[in-house]
Each structure stands twice: as structure tokens, then as C-alpha cells.
Write a structure and sequence with these properties.
The complex is a heterodimer of chains A (274) and B (996). Chain A is an alpha/beta fold and 274 residues long. Chain A has helices at 17-26, 36-40, 68-87, 97-105, 169-178, 237-246, 258-273, and strands at residues 5-10, 30-35, 51-54, 91-95, 121-123, 131-139, 153-160, 164-166, 181-186, 208-212, 218-221. In chain A, the strands form two sheets. Chain A has a nine-stranded mixed sheet. In chain A, strands 5-8 form a two-stranded antiparallel sheet. In chain A, helix 1 (17-26) links the parallel strand 1 and strand 2 (30-35). Among the domains of chain B are: 2-154, Phosphoribosylformylglycinamidine synthase subunit PurS (Mth169, Chain: A); 187-247, no CATH class; 823-996, Phosphoribosyl-aminoimidazole Synthetase, Chain A, domain 2, CATH 3.90.650. In chain B, 32% of the residues lie in helices and 25% in strands. Chain B contains 29 helices and 43 strands. In chain B, helix 14 runs antiparallel to helix 17. Chain B starts with a strand and ends with a helix. Classes of the chains: A alpha/beta (274), B alpha+beta (996).
């Protein structure tokens, strides 16, 4: 079979598309940056892709709630195509603005399948500001998420103003019970941050940084895995380099963020091949 | 119908915006507000029925998980409510996005007269503030009169049914657009007209302008198109083209320079030509990586065999001074259009910032329009939104506090773009409109924004007139345009592109017409935000987010197809034609008909008298005081001082990693908070080639001598680039001058001659250093008139001139990003080297400033000696010998050693006796001198031999060691321990002054 085809959405203030496509290509996918209107007006069809990525950015300038307007447009113009894409086993990854879009679209957490209703929200950071910082993340081993298989901990940057994960008590309980919480903000030791700033950079309930749907094939997260596709992205890489040189150890030039994409591409190629 | 939708967070949710407001009220005024919540208001002036309104409320504008909303007032329990809304005509991106969303949801286009407006209601509770205090909060924190109006309601005067009422800030067209013909019977009449219409014509230009319109051949040709007297459109065109902003009359002026100490005189004909253009062209001859300089919107240099990088730097001082957020936002979004409009267009890859403002805690008698504290918060946020929402990493920047900037703040913004070397086989940096090409305007629409921006005064605005001179940039619209234009470029559809900035269409079309030999524009085709603009206003409006392009007729359909795909508005407004004329029409009637040759006519050169007195003659001297007994105390004070302390709170708000290109971030070290010398990007993912960038400014040295200031600034930029692993022979520069008025006037500018001499000396240094280090100036900008007139305590007004300021932005390539360095100490046991000579050069230093001294001995640069050292350092880095590298700059060795230590969470033991020095060995001199040409480097012991071998014969010494014990220990020249400070304490001092 050929390469896994991944679609990276562009247009209307989305960004991160170049590096997201690059990360996908690095792990063997064929990645295409596709403008939303190319999907809507029929030039491109979602059905021919196995991975659909809504990446970071400021769609519609984040006005009226981050991700709200893009979600509305996807729902009204591409609702059926998305439903079908999910039903056929496609993978959807929402990063940062994309995560905000997926929760507003209602494909996350989607307890009972895609309903296109909003059950959780990503609201303004408690600190009151946009923040760009690196965080430690702990991966929930119980989660069905296919994107995080084999990962226990990782470090990635967050870059957002509206990343505080919020939901009512019942929804929170259900998320936890289902193992749909995939990533939590943590300390350097991997223990959940328990709300402490800046380890939990936005005040997210239960330190939630990412969730998936019950199938594990739809995944949304605030941190940016595509921003750690190369070892020189890590804030400490010059130190790591010196340490490893002195120990005569060779180091991988990959950043751990690539693993998320690699998992997706593996899963897609296996399920496609099967 | 008009409907007001109110949206708020559910009452049990933490309101982060409200909490920020409470913090700021405390921080700005010292007042307590126990509770603050924000209600967002969306006012629809649109034909929406009840069902539609209800549908958009539920489906779009209310998040059922986190928000509540109503078409009735939501506010109930509060002590005070402050409503803040935009004035008519002020860019309301959220409002237009709301309308776009409604249109999308209802699947019907909205009519031109339908609109949505956003505003906010702040609810304050648990507070003892009285009405006057709440009004102060409204005026000095929440709203800016220039762009916003506000109302204060107490709980008792709040109408539960009406709430804030229905406020629709619609622009009311004043009259039918028209073209005026204006008689100019005498020079005096034209002078008066210039005054009256704010044309700012130079008196020397006036006879030339009149002469043109009186010329018989001109009159004859004009008659043929139905014109006789000059029209308002024509005079406005001339005003724009001849303005200092567009024409750089100051830098192109003639300077009669006289050194009053030596009686040396020199006439410098055109600073731009002699100090910028000529050295750059000389260097370009030698450097094949310099691709395109001195003519386009930005300079172009080669990154690698397949890619070019594009760079420019701008300032946006006056607008930011009036409306900090909007001005800075417009500034960064505006400078981003320069690389977009360079060559056939480039993709933006980085933005940089620099702020010079008055003291944050200023409490003196002068009344600036915005207090420095509020001004700085505003510009920080403006650049944040502009960069972040554009998807461009804001990679690094400067901040300098000085009382001279109370008069006018400085906001520097720089932009870097990337383009392929070839587009469809043609060199990407070239562009040229051909006769027959269509003139297209893409992006935003035209309104009254920015008309006569700089000269407009704030007093003349009423409730229903557009706030013309201050604009609010819209990164969303521009990002869409950016993505669209790159696709159009790659398909080879663009033959010429430039941005609409200062002067609007009059500049973009006017300047590009020269390439094609003429242009004809139908101004009634230009899409407007609202009706009621006069024809000349359409032509000179500086409404943002617009580009002007030349597209061949055969490419039009495809161009428009792409434009529609990206939902960007593009309009054919005319055609280039080889007529030699700038021909403008409105509704088929000619309203301007000017010979292009007229703009190249013999306009008299501006002339300036420049008189220099050396610092000694001006009475500057070295201060007399003994060596302090507590140098550690001084170190703590300096680390905590406003100009050296942590600025993490700024950089943290900027997305500096988007695009996945960051290699060396601005903030580094174990706590990721210490500013590195430069940043490094990897613009082409997958390649190992990097681009290093840095910025430097040192206005305090200019108090002693602007020559030394510019020399030290450039030298430091060079060192900063080398410190991260950049190449010495591929350094490009961008010069930004911000200067007070230099035209002598015995009453209004009595020291004008001195300021002119300062400018001459600064330019001489620019020329000398660029030639010495072989730095071509890829781009640059001069902003004159950094003067403010501030109200004093007794109703008098004081002129406050900003320090002559020179910011240098420098770039270079990095051969292999894997060899990049950061400043922090990496490993205990590593040796610490100081490269370069320390001299008794404390003039203009932070150390002297602590005691309110200026001093005399300003740091001087010896480029020829420095170059040998720099080449060697480059070689050492290429061989990966150092583990860290820091260019020693402001604050001197002590400050930078402290940073190297606490950035690495390691100690340093330094021995001042070992410092290579050419001065009296006073410990404080060695610790705090700001001598140029120095680096602090750490090297592992096993690389010591190699490192020392290559530096043999150069001024360097091992001055200490990296220690496991986390303390900075300094031995004095006598051998005894001078001080020993835990790095945690040093870091705490450095972080202390201000936190987020």
C-alpha cells in the first residue's frame, strides 16, 4: 500500500500548518495542507485521507471564543463528511486551536458518538494571559488514545490564551471513568501538577491537557507536538548536547513530539492494510 | 433592527479577565476592587428576526458549557458598571467576524448597511471606590478617549430594563464625495493652504509646485483632460510624496557640520548616500550573498542555495504614543507587510520588538497622554496580538526605560520573511509592473483611518466622527491575505507587489507607476468600509491590511479564483500604462493628472546646521568617588534595576515557537528566563542551516557621544551573533534611527544644531563600523521628531525630546545549527575565559547611572583589533570548543557573569586579577566597565589546550571556573575574596522588580 494520507487544515487564521505537515512527512505520511474552502467547495474530499489534523492558530482571530466559528463552519458545511470520516475509522487530531475546534464541534468528548453538541469547554487561562512555555505531561496509560501509545511522559510547549479545560462535574466524572483523559500537566517528576502554576499553565480542571473520544481515534490537546519534532526545539538542548558529548553518547535528532504523529501513521497504515 | 446580546461567563466560573482588571487597578492606582467580572456585548444593527437572533445566540455566541447570555441586561449585583465601546469608524475585528459568522450561519450575504459592534461592560463589586475614582479607572485603564467612549453607572442609576442602552457607533457620512479645484494664486496662498489642510508642505517646495502647475505645457495637457487648477487629490498626492516620512528629506539633506572644538568643518551632502548607500554598495560588491538592497520594501539576502531571507525594521512611535495597543498592533502588522511586499512576496518567519518608554513608576509633574505604565502594557499587548494572531513567532526584543521617552515613546518592530530564490524560474527578489498590467488592491477596505495620521490632533473629535488618525491593525484579515498571496506568487501570478502603508494608494501606486512609466486608476472602484469619503481621502487613506499588485490580464481569472477561495477581497482599480502620467479618475472624470517626471523635479534639498562640541567641552567629566565597600550590594541593585532586570513577563506572552523553527530561544537557561544574546531560527525545516538574529540599542552612550553610541551598538550586535554561533562574514544590518527634531530654531528648538551634529556623528559611526565589519545595511528606517509637548503642573507645556536613539538589528547565517551556543554555564569544572580587553570605560554605564552620573569615558570600539579576536572565536565555535558564550554588554562583567551562573544553576569563581585590562585596576572598574569587544566563554578542561592554542597572541585570559557550589565568588585584584553571593539571591534580585 501507499503512504498514509494526512490532511492538515489551513485558512482563516490557522497556522502551524507547515511544521505539522513537516512532522507528518518525517514519520512517513504524505501530508497535504488543504484550505478549508477547498474541502467545502469540493476540490478536495476528506474521505481520501486517513488522518485529519486541525492544528494550532487563531481561526477567525479567536473572536467569540477560540475555535467557535471554525467549528460552526465545519459543522454546517462538512458535518456529514466528518461523521462519515469518523465512522470509517479515520483519525482526527486537534492541536491547540484545533482542540478548541473539536470540543466546540462536539466530536470531543463524544461520549455517545458524534452528536455535534458542546459538552466541555476550553476557556481563558487563569493567569489572564497568553503564555508560551514548555510543560511536562503525564500520559494516562489507561486511555484508549491511539496517538499516545507507548508514551509515558513527554515535554512539549503550550502556546495559548484559552486553554483552561472546564466541564461540569458529571462530565468530568465520565471523562475520568472512561479513561478519556489522555494528558495531564505534570511536574518534572511526572506527578500531576494538581493545579499549581506554572506546571499547570492555565488552571485546567484535573490538570487536563488533552482528551480523546471513547474510540481513542479522535484526540485533542493544548500542547504542540509538532513544535518538538527536532531535538533543537527543546529549551535545554544545548545543555543536553554538552552532557552527552562528555559521556560520548550519540543522541537522537528527533523530538518526542514526533511520536504522536508516528503512532497515528502506524495506526492508520495498519488499519488501512487490515 | 437593533439588538444587544450580552454574554458572560457562568457566575460560578473564575473570570480571568476580571481578575486581571483587579490586579491592574491595584498596580496602577493602589485601589482595592474585591470583585470584577466582564460582560461582552454584541450589538447587531442588521435585519435579523427574533428566531434568527435566538439561533445565532445559541449556536454561535454562547458556549453552553461555560457561558450565559441574553438579549436583556445580565448585570445585577455590582457597585459600579463601566461600559466601554469603540468610536465610529474604529476597526472592530470582533464585530466584523461576528457578522461574517452570522452570514455564514444563515447562509445569506449581509447587506452593506448591516453591521455588528462589540463592546464590554465591566462590573465592579466589593469596592469602596467613588464615582471620580471609577471614572479614573475608566479613563486611565479601560478606555482611551481617542478610539473609545465609556460610560459609568452606579448600581442606583442602573436601569434594569435598558441596561447600557442601544449604542450603535455607525459612521454617518458627512456629505457626497467630491473633488475640489483649488486656486493657488501665490506662494503665500499655497503656504496658507498647506497649513489649513495639514499638507505639511516644505516652504522650499512651494515655488516648485506652483511652477509646475503654471507651466504652459502642463496647462495645455491638463486642459485636454478637463483640468485647470490643481485639485485637492493632486495636492494631497504631492504632500504625501514630498513628506519626510516617504522621502527621507532629513537623511537626504545637506548638513553644514562644524566641530566647535577643532573648528573642523565639513559639508555632508546627503547622509543616506554617503553613510548608508555607498558603504552598502561597496560591501555588496564583495559579498555575493547580498541579493537586493536599498530600493525595495525590505532587504534580501541569501540564506542557502535555494532560499532568500528578507528583513526590515520600522517604528510606530506617534500612533503608539496616542493609543498604545492599537498603535503597536498596527505597527507590527504593518511591518509584516514589508516582507510580503518585497520581491514577488515572502512568507513571514519572525518578528522582533523594541520599546523605549518613560519610567514605569513615573510620578513627576508632567502629564503624558498615557502614563508609561499603561503605555508599556498596551504596546506589549498590541505586539502580542499582532504577532500571535499572524502565526509569526515574535522571537526577541528590547525594553529601555528613560525619562526622555515621556515625550514620545518608541516602538520598534522588525520583520523577517523567507522566499525561494526562484519563482517559476524568475528571481524571486525582482518585481516590475509592465504597461498593460492590471492594478489590483487586495485585502482590507478603505476607510478614514490614518488620514494625515501624524498631524491630526485629538481635540477635534466628536461622538460621531471617525477616529481618523489611530488605527487598529487586524492580523486576522492580513493572515488570510498573506496565505492567499503566497499561493498566487507560487503560481507566478504576481509581477509586482507592494504594501499600502504610509500614504496609502498614493504611495503604493504612485511609486510603482514609476517602474511601469505611468498608471491610470479609477478611484470609484476602490471598495470602501463606509460611504462618505472624499476622493482624496480614498487615495491617501492608510487603512491597513492592503497590498497593491500588478497582475497580467491573462492571469486575472486565476488570481481572482484564488482570492475567492481564501475569502480575501481583491479589486481591479486600474492599469499601468506607459504614458508618463499618474492619471486618476472618479466616476469617469479626471481628478488628478500629474507627470511622473514632476516627482523627480529639482525640489530644493533640506539644509541643516550641525554644531558639535565634544563631551569635555560640554562639561562632562568622570565622577570622583571611592571604590564601594559593598560591591555585592551594587550587583544586586543593578540586577534589579529597570533596565537590566528580568523581562520574562513580556516574552512569555509572545508565541516565539510557532512555525517550529526555533533553535535558540530568547529566554534560555535552566529556568528558561535569562535573555540570550541572539536567537537562532531554522527557517527551512529539515535543513541544518540557521539564521541568527539580534537587536541592540544603547542610547545612554549617546549622551556622551553618538559616534561611540552607534559604534558600541554595532559592535555588540556582531558579538551577540558570534556568541550563538553565527558567521562573521555574512552579517547584515538594519539601522533604525529615532531622533528628535534637528532643525535649529532659536525659540522652538534652540539645541537643534547640536542634535543635527549628533545625527551626523551617528551616521559617520554607522558608515565606519559597517565598512570595518563589512556589514551591508539590508534595510533601515529613520523616524524624526521624537519630541513631545507635555502639560506641567501649572498648565504650562514642556517640550520633552527623546534621547537620540539608534537600534541595530543584525542577522547572519549559521552553518550548522547543531553547533549553536547559549549563554549559561553548563558543567562544574569548566574554565571561564574572558576574551577582549577591559578598559576604564564606565561613561554612560549602568554603574554610573546608579549614582546618577553620566561620566566621560564612553566605551570605544577598535574594529581592526576586534576582528582578529572575532574570527578566532568563530573558529573556536566551529570546532565546538566552548560550552557557552556570552557577549559582555550593558552592566559589565559582573552582571553577565551573574547571568551565566544563575542561568546554569551553577556557581562561578572569578579572579579579577586575571582580567585582561588596560586601566587602573580598581575592582569596580573591572566589574562594571562596559568596554566593547568582550566575551565570557566557558570551556571544558579537556578542550583547554585547543582553545588556548587558537587564541594565542590575542587578548584573553582564563579568569575563573564553573563551580558545583551555586555561588558567584569574586576575588579582587588584591587577591582577597571581594564577595560571595548565592546565585539564588542574585536571581531573586534580578526577578524582583516586576512579575507578570
Amino acid at each position: 500500500m501507499g503512504k498514509v494520507k494526512a490532511l492538515v487544515l489551513t485558512g482563516f487564521g490557522l497556522n502551524c500548518d507547515w511544521e505539522t505537515a513537516h512532522a507528518l512527512e518525517r514519520v512517513g505520511a504524505h501530508a497535504e495542507r488543504v484550505h478549508l474552502n477547498s474541502l467545502v467547495t469540493g476540490g478536495k474530499t476528506l474521505a481520501v485521507y486517513q488522518v485529519f489534523v486541525v492544528g494550532g492558530g487563531f481561526s477567525w482571530a479567536d473572536e467569540h471564543g477560540a475555535g467557535v466559528i471554525l467549528a460552526m463552519r465545519l459543522k454546517h458545511r462538512l458535518g456529514d463528511a466528518i461523521r462519515e470520516f469518523i465512522a470509517k475509522g479515520g483519525l482526527i487530531l486537534g492541536i491547540c486551536n484545533g482542540f478548541q475546534v473539536l470540543v466546540n464541534l462536539g466530536v470531543l468528548p463524544a461520549f455517545d458518538g458524534v452528536s455535534f453538541t458542546r459538552e466541555v469547554a476550553l476557556i481563558h487561562n487563569d493567569c489572564g494571559n497568553f503564555r508560551d512555555q514548555w510543560v511536562h505531561l503525564a500520559v494516562n496509560a489507561e486511555s484508549p488514545c491511539v496517538f499516545t501509545r507507548g508514551l509515558e511522559r513527554l515535554e512539549l510547549p503550550v502556546r495559548h490564551g484559552e486553554g483552561k479545560f472546564y466541564a461540569g462535574t458529571k462530565v468530568m466524572e465520565k471523562l475520568e471513568a472512561n479513561g478519556q483523559v489522555v494528558l495531564r500537566y505534570a511536574g518534572a517528576d511526572g506527578a500531576p501538577a494538581q493545579g499549581s502554576f506554572p506546571e499547570n499553565p492555565n488552571g485546567s480542571l484535573n490538570d487536563i491537557a488533552g482528551i480523546c473520544d471513547p474510540s481513542g481515534r479522535i484526540f485533542g490537546l493544548m500542547p504542540h507536538p509538532e513544535a518538538y519534532h527536532h531535538w533543537t526545539h527543546h529549551p535545554d538542548w544545548t545543555l543536553q548536547k554538552e552532557r552527552l558529548r562528555r559521556q560520548n553518547v550519540r543522541f537522537s535528532e528527533e523530538g518526542i513530539g514526533l511520536e504522536i504523529f508516528r503512532n497515528a501513521v502506524h495506526y492508520a497504515s495498519e488499519s488501512h492494510g487490515a | 433592527m437593533i439588538a444587544r446580546l450580552e454574554i458572560a461567563l457562568k457566575p460560578d466560573l473564575f473570570d480571568a479577565e476580571g481578575a486581571s482588571l483587579r490586579r491592574k487597578v491595584k498596580d496602577y492606582f493602589g485601589w482595592h476592587v474585591g470583585g470584577a467580572r466582564v460582560v461582552k456585548i454584541l450589538t447587531f444593527d442588521a435585519r435579523l428576526n427574533r428566531y434568527e437572533l435566538e439561533a445565532v445566540r445559541n449556536e454561535i455566541f454562547t458556549n453552553p458549557v461555560s457561558q450565559v447570555s441574553s438579549f436583556r441586561p445580565l448585570a445585577e449585583a455590582f457597585d459600579w458598571a463601566v461600559w466601554v465601546g469603540l468610536r465610529p469608524g474604529v476597526r472592530d475585528t470582533a464585530g466584523s467576524v461576528a457578522l461574517e459568522a452570522v452570514s455564514d450561519f444563515l447562509q445569506r450575504p449581509m447587506a452593506d448597511d448591516e453591521a455588528a459592534y462589540t463592546s464590554k461592560l465591566y462590573l465592579l463589586s466589593d469596592t469602596a471606590l467613588d464615582r471620580t475614582q471609577v471614572e479614573t479607572v475608566a479613563r486611565e485603564l479601560l478606555a482611551n478617549d481617542i478610539i473609545q467612549h465609556w460610560r459609568v453607572f452606579s448600581r442606583s442609576d442602573w436601569d434594569l430594563e435598558a441596561g447600557v442602552g442601544m449604542i450603535v457607533p455607525k459612521v454617518m457620512p458627512a456629505h457626497e464625495p467630491r473633488v475640489a479645484e483649488i486656486p493657488i494664486p501665490s506662494d503665500e496662498a499655497l503656504r496658507a493652504l498647506s497649513e489649513e489642510r495639514n499638507l505639511a508642505l516644505n516652504p522650499r517646495d512651494i515655488p516648485v509646485i506652483r511652477g509646475y502647475f503654471l507651466r504652459e505645457s502642463v496647462l495645455q495637457e491638463r486642459r485636454r483632460v478637463g483640468l485647470s487648477l490643481p485639485t485637492d487629490v493632486e495636492l494631497e498626492t504631492i504632500s504625501q510624496a514630498r513628506s519626510d516620512h516617504c522621502n527621507h528629506n532629513t537623511f537626504r539633506g545637506k548638513f553644514h557640520y562644524r566641530d566647535l572644538d577643532t573648528e573642523e568643518t565639513e559639508v555632508i551632502d546627503n547622509l543616506f548616500k554617503t553613510c548608508i548607500q555607498s558603504p552598502t554598495l561597496q560591501i555588496k560588491e564583495k559579498k555575493d550573498w547580498v541579493v537586493s538592497v536599498l530600493w525595495d520594501n525590505a532587504g534580501v539576502a541569501r540564506l542557502d542555495d535555494d532560499h532568500l531571507y528578507v528583513i526590515t525594521g520600522e517604528t510606530h512611535n506617534s500612533p503608539s504614543n496616542m493609543e498604545a495597543y492599537g498603535g503597536a498592533l498596527t505597527g507590527i502588522v504593518g511591518v509584516y507587510r514589508d516582507p510580503m511586499g518585497t520581491g514577488k512576496g515572502s512568507r513571514l518567519i519572525a518578528g522582533l520588538y523594541g520599546y523605549c518608554v518613560g519610567p514605569r513608576d513615573y510620578a513627576g509633574p508632567l502629564r503624558p497622554h498615557l502614563h508609561p505604565r499603561r503605555l508599556l502594557d498596551g504596546v506589549v499587548e498590541g505586539v502580542r496580538d499582532g504577532g500571535n494572531k499572524h502565526g509569526v513567532p515574535t522571537v526577541m526584543g528590547n525594553l529601555l526605560y528613560h525619562p526622555s521617552y515621556l515625550g514620545k515613546c518608541l516602538v520598534f518592530v522588525a520583520a523577517i520573511g523567507l522566499m525561494p530564490r526562484f519563482v517559476k524560474g524568475e528571481p524571486a527578489e525582482q518585481k516590475r509592473p509592465n504597461p498593460g498590467d492590471l492594478i489590483i488592491m487586495s485585502g482590507g477596505r478603505v476607510g478614514k483611518d490614518g488620514i494625515h495620521g501624524v498631524t491630526a490632533s485629538s481635540e477635534s473629535y466628536s461622538e460621531s466622527t471617525p477616529a481618523g488618525h489611530v488605527q487598529i491593525g487586524d492580523p486576522y484579515t492580513q493572515k488570510k491575505m498573506h496565505d492567499f498571496l503566497l499561493e498566487a506568487r507560487d503560481e507566478g501570478l504576481i509581477t509586482f507587489i507592494t504594501d499600502n502603508g504610509g500614504g496609502g494608494l498614493s504611495s503604493s501606486v504612485g511609486e510603482s507607476a514609476h517602474f511601469a512609466g505611468g498608471a491610470r486608476v479609477e478611484l470609484d472602484r476602490v471598495p470602501l468600509k463606509y460611504e462618505g469619503l472624499d476622493v482624496w481621502e480614498i487615495w491617501v487613506s492608510e487603512s491597513q491590511e492592503r497590498m497593491t499588485l500588478a497582475v497580467r490580464p491573462e492571469h486575472l481569472d486565476r488570481f481572482m479564483e484564488l482570492s475567492r477561495l481564501h475569502e480575501v477581497e481583491s479589486t481591479v482599480i486600474g492599469r499601468y500604462e506607459a504614458t508618463g502620467k499618474l492619471h486618476l479618475l472618479y466616476r469617469e472624470k479626471t481628478c488628478a493628472y500629474l507627470d511622473l517626471s514632476f516627482f523627480a523635479e529639482d525640489f530644493p534639498q533640506w539644509e541643516f546646521e550641525a554644531q558639535w562640541r565634544g563631551p569635555k567641552t560640554r562639561g562632562l567629566s568622570e565622577p570622583v568617588f571611592s571604590e564601594p565597600e559593598d560591591p555585592a550590594g551594587i550587583l544586586h541593585r543593578l540586577l534589579a534595576s529597570p533596565n537590566l532586570c528580568s523581562r520574562e513577563w513580556i516574552q512569555r506572552q509572545y508565541d516565539h515557537e510557532v512555525q517550529g523553527t526555533s533553535v535558540v530561544k530568547f529566554l534560555v537557561g535552566r529556568n528558561r528566563d535569562v535573555p540570550n544574546d541572539a536567537v537562532v531560527l531554522r527557517p527551512v525545516l529539515g535543513s541544518s542551516r540557521g539564521l541568527a538574529v539580534t537587536q541592540t540599542l544603547h542610547p545612554l552612550y549617546g549622551i556622551i557621544d553618538t559616534y561611540a553610541m552607534v559604534a558600541a551598538t554595532i559592535d555588540e550586535s556582531v558579538r551577540r551573533l558570534l556568541a550563538v554561533g553565527g558567521r562573521l562574514d555574512e552579517i547584515g544590518g538594519v539601522d533604525n534611527f529615532c531622533w528628535p527634531n534637528i532643525q535649529y530654531d532659536p525659540e522652538t528648538n534652540p539645541d537643534g544644531r547640536y542634535k543635527a551634529a549628533q545625527l551626523v556623528r551617528a551616521n559617520r559611526a554607522l558608515r565606519d563600523l559597517c565598512l570595518a565589519y563589512e556589514i551591508p545595511l539590508l534595510s533601515g528606517k529613520d523616524s524624526m521628531y521624537v519630541d513631545g509637548y507635555l502639560r506641567g503642573r501649572f498648565g504650562e507645556r514642556h517640550k520633552v525630546s527623546g534621547l537620540p536613539t539608534f537600534q541595530f538589528t543584525a542577522t547572519t547565517t549559521v552553518e550548522d545549527i547543531r553547533r549553536c551556543l547559549t549563554l549559561e554555564a553548563k558543567h562544574p569544572g569548566d574554565l571561564v575565559y574572558l576574551l577582549g580587553v577591559t578598559r576604564d570605560e564606565l561613561g554612560g554605564s549602568e554603574y554610573y547611572d546608579l549614582f546618577s552620573y553620566v561620566g566621560l569615558n564612553v566605551p570605544k570600539v577598535d574594529p581592526s583589533a576586534a576582528r582578529d579576536l572575532y574570527w578566532t572565536l568563530e573558529e573556536a565555535v566551529r570546532r565546538e570548543l566552548p560550552a557557552s558564550c556570552r557577549a559582555v554588554g550593558k552592566g559589565g562583567l559582573a552582571i553577565h557573569a551573574a547571568m551565566v551562573a544563575f542561568a546554569g544553576n551553577l556557581g562561578l569563581a572569578l579572579d579579577l586579577a586575571a582580567v585582561p585590562a588596560d586601566c587602573s585596576h580598581r575592582n569596580d572598574t573591572l566589574l562594571f566597565s562596559e568596554s566593547a569587544g568582550r566575551f565570557l566563554v566557558t570551556v571544558p578542561p579537556e578542550r583547554r589546550m585547543d582553545f588556548e592554542a587558537i587564541f594565542r597572541g590575542l587578548p584573553f585570559a582564563c579568569v575563573g571556573k564553573v563551580m558545583e557550589d551555586p555561588r558567584l565568588t569574586v576575588r579582587g585584584v588584591e587577591g582577597a575574596v571581594l564577595f560571595e553571593e548565592p546565585i539564588s539571591r542574585l536571581r531573586a534580585s534580578w526577578q524582583g522588580l516586576r512579575q507578570g
